[in-house]
Design goal:
With 234 residues, the protein is α+β, with helices and mostly antiparallel strands. Helix content is 36%, strand content 13%. The strands form 4 sheets. A 3-stranded mixed beta sheet has the order 1-4-5, with no helix packed on it. A 3-stranded antiparallel beta sheet has the order 3-2-8, with no helix packed on it. A two-stranded antiparallel ribbon has the order 6-7. β6 and β7 form a beta hairpin.
């Protein structure tokens, strides 16, 4: 974000920050969603702060922009049947807001539980001698990670797909998030990129794997996950 903000300031660009999976995260004391002109949060049920259905939130310090965003969410109209511009039907319904108000006071505690479990995963991986085969997520000391996922990397020559099947056979659920990099998505084909243009993105898509992580995960369950991974590599 530091580099993106610097480029944007130099070029006169507006930064819209996708903080959908990062609510509560901080970078050098700055809250995710507060770095750009607009911050976007998702409250989809699988997020760290989830509603009972579809829901989301935008944040901004710009009063004029906030007024326009409020207008855009109701078909671009300030009053019923009078539309200044084309907008959306994108309101947060009262039921979702009620669910989120009940859950919000628990968010910091849930985030701390995620951090604690992530730290335990990393320690167990190291103690099991798996660092030769598995790269745990990097945590910067000046950042506050909220671990929406705990994502490891399994670089070649190890087989990520074989590990997934091994874990599945032993009752451990995993998921590959974003297996296709953006520049290789069909919807962006007109941009003219091809395989090899963004090797770091492609490498991450081939090597990353999310292990189970949620605030209620027990230490015994985590030990079982890591032991199952260790048995695969042994």
């Amino acid at each position: 974000m530091e580099v993106i903000l610097e480029i944007a300031a130099r070029r006169g660009l507006h930064v819209i920050e996708d903080a959908a999976q990062a609510i509560g995260a901080q970078d050098r004391g700055r809250q995710a969603g507060s770095l750009g002109e607009v911050g976007c949060f998702s409250f989809y049920p699988t997020k760290n702060l989830g509603a009972a259905g579809e829901a989301g939130l935008l944040t901004t310090n710009d009063a004029t922009l906030a007024e326009r965003l409020r207008r855009l969410r109701v078909h671009g109209g300030e009053t019923e049947y009078h539309h200044r511009e084309i907008g959306f039907n994108s309101r947060l319904d009262t039921l979702q807001a009620a669910v989120l108000r009940v859950k919000l006071p628990h968010l910091d505690g849930w985030s701390q539980s995620r951090r604690d479990r992530a730290a335990l995963y990393t320690r167990l991986i190291t103690e099991a001698g798996l660092n030769e085969f598995v790269t745990p997520p990097h945590v910067r000391p000046d950042a506050r990670h909220i671990f929406h996922q705990y994502v490891i990397r399994i670089p070649p020559p190890a087989s990520r797909d074989a590990l997934i099947e091994h874990l599945k056979t032993h009752g451990v659920g995993t998921k590959i998030y974003y297996p296709v990099p953006l520049h290789l998505q069909e919807c962006f084909r007109d941009l003219g990129y091809s395989e090899g243009d963004f090797p770091e993105s492609e490498s991450a898509a081939r090597e990353t794997l999310a292990l189970p992580l949620f605030p209620e995960l027990s230490e015994d369950q985590q030990q079982y996950v890591v032991e199952t991974v260790r048995r695969f590599f042994s």
